[in-house]
Amino acid sequence: MNRFSGKITNPEYSSQQTQLGQMCGSKQLFRDRYEILRILGRGGFGITYLAKNAILPGNPLCVIKQLCPKVTNLKSWQRACDRFEKEAKTLGQLGSHSQIPLLLDYFEKDGEFYLVQEYVQGLTLAQEVRKTGPKNEAVVKQFLQELLPVLQYLHKHHVIHRDIKPQNLLRCQDDGRVVLIDFGAVKEKLAETCENSIDKTAFIGTMGFAPPEQFSLHPVYASDIYALGMTCLYLLTGKSPLEFDYDADTGEVCWQKEVNISDNFVQVLGKMLKIPLDERFKTADEAIAALSQESYLPTLNDCLTTQQLKNQTITEEENPQVYVPPVARTANAIRKWKAKLNETKSRS
Questions:
Q1: Quick check: is 172 in a domain?
Q2: Set 82, 105, 110, 163: catalytic member
Q3: Digit-coded pLDDT (tens) for 120-144
Q4: Catalytic annotation on 199?
Q5: What pTM value is reported for the model?
Q6: Is 317 found in the same domain as 280?
Q7: Which of 173, 219, 265, 306 could be 214's S-S partner, Cβ–Cβ 3.0 to 4.6 Å?
Q8: By the 8 A CB rule, do 208 and 253 touch?
């Protein structure tokens, strides 16, 4: 099946000008199957629509993402088609993960590219925070434990998301899982095909959530970790990155006084948000290990002896907070038994 027509356009689009925008709310079907319901969002590279499949049983909902590359010659157009198909296939492979929307279809029509993905019903984490307020440390740790394995999965498949933020994280209404949406990789690959020099150097990401190397158009796996750290700050405070102060010397966000979290979690979050790449977690594996170690620290601290024993005759009954080794406990019990025996003999 040939998904690409070879027709070249240079669309200047708005929701009214596009075919899908004109079909919103009507019973007319796009590609003889999709009924366009409403706009979900828009950005520099296209518009996202909510639709339903009118020919499948139950008329399941889906999301149609319309991407509009600006190309004017055949060579650039073919390059755009190749990039789009390659990235769409990658998204198709990633969709086998329960926290990444399933890719249902992809195609080109009238010079514009389309991705059709499953619709995940629920609120974004940004909407959640606006509705119920900031989260506490335990909730944010749980969030990290859910999302870091997703980054682990993406990076294993050599994919950098490039646009992790609360608006791109959905909590599924049905089962509560957090789903990562709106990958920036496809947009970046299409931007690279544009003839316009401004488009060629287009920044893919969101101001404040993206680290400096991403602004320099050199994103790495650690770039996603930084964005995830900034998302944690938003969840803890309800403040977007641009609402924080920044250190004039290091460029790092000044956030420690804005949160009420344990010292151990401060260390983990701080390393996620380091500006120098050699000081930041390089992989999701490193962050997962640090978070796992951090979660056990309170338990380990409770097991450690922090007071020096003055003598081994101190019993757990006298001071329950002092750890007494088994041998010492046995010796104490023998001494106690002998003392009671001697006391009994002296009375008789």
A1: yes
A2: 163
A3: 999 999 999 999 999 999 999 999 9
A4: no
A5: 0.76
A6: no
A7: 219
A8: no
